[in-house]
Amino acid sequence: MVKTSSTALTEGPVYVPGLPREHVAEKYGIPLDEIAKLGSAENPHGPSPMAVAAIAAADPKFDIYPDWTAKPLRDAIARRYGFDADCIVCGAGETEVISMIVRAFCGVGEAILMHDPCFPIYRIFSTVEGRVPMLVRMGEEFDPMLDAYVARLAEKPRIAFITNPHNPTGKLLDEPEVRRICDAADPGTLVVLDEAYIHYSETDGMMHLLHDYDNLIVLRTFSKAFGLAGLRVGFGVSANPELIRPLRNIKPTWNPGHMQITGGAAAVFDDDHVARAVATVVQSRKMVEAEMQGMNSFRMVPGCRSNFFLTEIVNPDLDSTKVFNGLLERGVIVKDGIDIEGLGPRYLRVDLNLKRHMQRFLGALRDIETGSDA
Ligand SMILES: Cc1ncc(COP(=O)(O)O)c(C=O)c1O
Q1: Is there a contact between 221 and 196 (Cβ–Cβ < 8 Å)?
Q2: What is the Å distance from ligand 1's center to 351 Cα?
Q3: CA 214 – CA 188 distance, rounded (Å)
Q4: Which helix (H) or strand (E) holds 147?
Q5: Is 0.85 topped by the overall pTM?
Q6: Which of 103, 105, 215, 354 has the most CB atoms at less than 10 Å from its CB?
Q7: Which ligand 1 atom sits nearest the alpha carbon of residue 234?
Q8: What's the CA gap between 368 and 180, in Å, rounded?
Q9: Does the C-beta of 164 come closer than 6 Å to ligand 1?
Q10: Structure confidence by residue, pLDDT tens digits, 26-42
Q11: Protein residue with least CA distance to atom 12, ligand 1
């Protein structure tokens, strides 16, 4: 029998994505455009129009290899954020860059620091690749427990992941907090600051810290505020090109392809689209926060600065899977807390999206609370 290189590859954790609209439409007979898709943190206004126009106008060059380092995209990102193109590595989504980082900077059996809960991919890639997740449990109301996190840094993990704002809680660390982590990290620990959702925090993020720490990489994605989750483009940036070279060497050589390069290079300048998405998310956040205050069975976990938030199920007769299924029947897709390791059955992760989708979510929660039929 053919064996895998590690049993974790067959027995380890598996990513559970948000469900597609088609699943709910087919199962419950609800029209596709009525379904509120609130489980994948996608853009409420679709793809960046600048990216769509650039891709439509481009010569697709399907028969020609793209530049294997995605040079035109690196040049655009470099211009946008003021770094040298040699300080940037691109991938087919940020997820691919995360996978490259795990393999390039941490050996089998070595430790990778992360919060519990965290973006499940950090833990999954670490585990299935034989690296060891070092978990810092979040505190009450998902306090990031910086003292505990910094204490674990003293054990010199090879990589330390920080997500800002955090997934799945939406909590935001401020600059002194992120600096505290960078200052505490051993020079041999790679600090990875994942800013996938940074636009929704209405801050500029902390790429400027790269100039102060040469063991720091910042990750960004085109999947969220730029609306290009289906295109698959993401990147990492560091002021230290020595961190970028190994990533380029371990990268699946010709990723990303021409369309990803073209779309990403246009989207990175699409400030109007980003602003529109952020305005919608911020408005919906306020509306949902106010509406949920009137509920007895459910509570919004406070302090969210992202395009999703945690719903706590306070009614002991309900759990996340009951509510998740009740929402599905009513045409609302969210993320069940049991599918995010470390989160569990008292929580749901729910996206902030167009007002009509949030109203459908709130109406469905009220129905579940009062026991009304779907
Ligand atoms: C924290 C975080 N980083 C990265 C990603 C993945 O981004 P991409 O679609 O670019 O692979 C996600 C997606 O959910 C995420 O939550």
Answers
A1: yes
A2: 14
A3: 10
A4: helix 146-153
A5: yes
A6: 105
A7: 10
A8: 43
A9: no
A10: 999 999 999 999 999 99
A11: 196
